[in-house]
Amino acid sequence: MVVKDVFPADWDIDILGNCARIETGGRNTEDKNDDGRYPFFVRSQKVEHINTYHYDCEAILTAGDGVGTGKVFHYYKGKFDVHQRVYVLTGFNRVIGGYLYYYFKANFLKEVEKYTAKSSVDSVRRAMIEKMQIPIPGLKEQSAIVEALMDTDCLICSLQKLADKKKAVRQGVMQELLTGKRRLPGYAGNWIKARLGGHCEIFDGTHQTPHYVESGIPFYSVENVTSNNFTNVKYISEEEHKKITASYRIEKGDILMTRIGSIGACKYVDWDVNASFYVSLALIKCVGNIDAQFLCYYTQSTGFKKEIEAHSLVTAIPRKINLGPISEILVTVPESIEEQKAISQILFDMDREIGQIEKKLAKYQQIRQGMTKELLTGHIRLEAGGTQG
């Protein structure tokens, strides 16, 4: 139940059933047409297409059952059709459609969770929507809230598109540079095919599950490499670390590669490190005419992935590649280590640019989350409505 005191005194409270007409669509999933002229809203975030339309209006749509229950929302104006288990909210009264969409999207899952004792919501009844209480500011303030949130959404969307575009360009450039299809100015030397073990020393981590402690020396595993997160780690004691690393240890400039499960994922160690690692990882130290950062980029190439597949234990569950077969992997690299480093620098610069965009995107997503809560509760008031926050 919405507590009136939580919202500004000049806001009203009403149930959603008094603010919109609620019904379900009439189409089935098999009615979709990939080349259809109109949007077809189903029970997922993906919008399908269809050649018919039953609606031509402003609407809010949400999944009525399935994994998207309480999580899938759409706001649309125009001609469209709807799956039979998708709720359609139209004919808005006292509320602007955009305002109701933002409030509904932010609060509906919490609303329907009140009706189930299970850990997840798998279906929605019409009454759950009708009885949901909605705080209602004046129409001008609703409009101002919608404008603020939509502007932020547009910025987030543009940053996401920019990041996706940069990643696509980076992927194409990487494949061309790592196969020699594109040569950098000033470089025309040969590329050579080399066995990895001829240019690298390869080790695995401890085979014993260590005794973890609350704080101490970081202990890396597959999850740290695949998530590219080396801050969320487990720890072992200094004493155990010394025993594990008596023969060799991770150093700045090495490569960590997963060899169990999702094999072949790599991380170039570009930070000062004092850590141990588990047997699920291979430690690669470049000692020959291969630049470690170049090799780490090369592991993302199609050629390297095929070599990993060819040398892995296909019958092992989970998948696995042993140290010996890793040494036998063939790589094709520029004979000039200077060209390898030049290629690495270009890809590094592209990754840094993408990282800056993604950092900015994450910042605005966080701001957007806070804005939503503050604006939809009236804790922050815009000029169009009441006292400023």
Strand-helix topology:
Elements: E1 12-15, E2 21-24, E3 38-41, E4 47-50, E5 55-63, E6 73-82, E7 86-90, H1 97-112, H2 126-130, E8 133-136, H3 139-179, E9 191-195, E10 200-204, E11 217-220, H4 222-226, E12 234-236, H5 238-244, E13 255-258, E14 266-268, E15 276-277, E16 281-286, H6 292-298, H7 302-311, H8 323-328, E17 330-334, H9 337-376
Would you kindly provide a written description of the structure presented here, covering whatever features stand out?
35% of the residues lie in helices and 21% in strands. It is α+β, with helices and mostly antiparallel strands and 389 residues long. The chain has a 6-stranded mixed beta sheet. The chain has a 4-stranded antiparallel beta sheet with strand order 10-16-13-14. It has a 3-stranded mixed beta sheet with strand order 12-11-15. β3 (38-41) and β4 (47-50) form a beta hairpin. α3 (139-179) packs antiparallel against α9 (337-376). It is elongated. The two termini are 24 Å apart. The mean pLDDT is 93.
